[in-house]
Amino acid sequence: MKSKELAPPLGRGEESPPSVRLLMGALMLVMLLSALDQTIVSTALPTIVGELGGLDRLSWIVTAYMLASTIVVPLYGKFGDLFGRKTVLQISVVLFLIGSVLCGLAQNMEQLILTRALQGLGGGGLMVVSMAAVADIIPPADRGKYQGLFGGVFGLATVVGPLLGGFIVQHASWRWIFYINLPLGLFALLVINAVFKANTKRKPHEIDYPGAVCLSVALVGITLFTSEGGTVRAWGDPQLWCILAFGLVGVIGFIYEERRAWEPIIPLSLFRNRSFSLSSLMAFIVGMSLFGSVTFLPLYLQVVKGSTPTEAGLQLLPLMGGLLVTSIISGRIISRTGRYRMFPIAGTLLATLGMELMTTLTLNSPLWQIYLYACVLGMGMGMVMQVLVLAVQNSVAPDSMGVATSSVTLFRSVGGSIGVALFGAMFSHVLKSGLTKLVEQGDVLPATLDPNAVHQLPHDVQQAYLQVFSEAVHAAFQMAAVVMAVAFVLSLFLPESPLRSKAKQ
User: Are 195 and 22 in contact (CB under 8 A)?
Assistant: First the structure.
């Protein structure tokens, strides 16, 4: 059934009419809005922790947003079919903007984490609806260049986010990194209202609310366990293991519900499709590695290299530039050749190499080395993320396109949420252990993770502090490299199907 809401599907090689190009622009705008807030806080983390405290919950500023957006991803596709994509997108943007305002007004770490979660409830709808809409009107054979552009937008958000965040923190208050969403969000609302036409015909759906509840319980339980284990709570704390048990019960309940639900969030039959299973697992791993490790790179640049927040944002340009370039180039090559399997293989290998190179950095390593290694990492990531979505969309039946797309996005978001929490716990544990040894030696250390306070320490104490901090960042990247190596092995088994020449009908 053709959608009344979008332009008619294109055939291969057809020139995109102005309405389609305008629609693509609108979809990329809302994706930019969602992706921007995954990265804009990274350069502001030291400043936020310095003002609000809560070093042990630093990673939750990122995790809360990603976890909340992950939980609602499976529901937004069904909501779009029930109420229309235009309505769902508008509600998502409004919810996102309300969360942004409340984040800017937060007075302590608990308030900020809760309002970041509210932001995520809105942001989760923006990315998945835009990705599914591309599959509705663009045939797989031509979809590579559009997916490349969407990957480019994601890369642009990753470039602009840290840079914009650093500039705002240095020249204003960190609270403006949330207020800045207001003009962009309002503009997105205007574009959506102008471009999208109301869908007058609905396809009836049954929303799997029990499955959504079980999925939420599973994700919150597992993420809390990975983030608090060894940091906030000791590994022997019975409450910690109760949290894990709570999460595992959610996993079991989710699987049970998916087997009996009329319209499951993730139909278990999809996992019999080899492309879907491997792509979903790789998306999970890539999300875990990317968000779990790169979150700490701006921290490293500010604390170890003495960069200002703005400089730290600029110094991420090689990483984001590499991601942007390879994402666009790989998309165009796929559209011309119809072959995509080689890109996840090469991409995961490059990303593993880049993360391993990051662990070799020392206190005296020149900045050009950081730029080079970050560029290698970004180039690898750019060849993987959007190609996995394309591989899944090309391998499933047309009536499973939407749920398959949202499922891969879900797995990537789940991986990102768990990765930030897990690597954050590793970072905090190594840092806390090292700093405890320095305190036992009689050194006086700053109470917060404030780069200025660190750089005012006596030279010997400062060098010892920076060495401990570097080891904590290295631990996060080492874990990310091992995880990404698993994705490389999986990519070798990814099948390649001929790209279909017709879009979803």
Answer: yes
163-219 tens-digit pLDDT: 788 788 878 888 888 888 888 778 877 877 777 665 555 566 677 788 888 888 888
pLDDT of residue 252: 93
Classify 233 as helix, strand or coil: strand
- The whole-model pTM stands at 0.74
Phi and psi angles of residue 343, each rounded to the nearest 5 degrees, phi first: -75, -45
Task: Please list, in sequence order, all residues whose beta carbon lies within 8 angstroms of the beta carbon of residue 327, skipping any fewer than 6 positions away.
Answer: 148, 151, 152, 154, 155, 382, 383, 385, 386
Q: Where are the domains of the chain?
A: 18-207+263-491, 208-262
In the CATH hierarchy, which fold is given to the domain comprising 18-207+263-491?
Growth Hormone; Chain: A; (1.20.1250)
Maximum Cα–Cα distance across the chain: 72
CA 388 from chain centre, in angstroms, equals 15
Tell which residue, 105, 67, 338, 81, has the closest CA to residue 220: 67
Q: In 3D, which of 147, 394, 132, 141 has the Cα closest to residue 274?
A: 394
SS3 448: coil
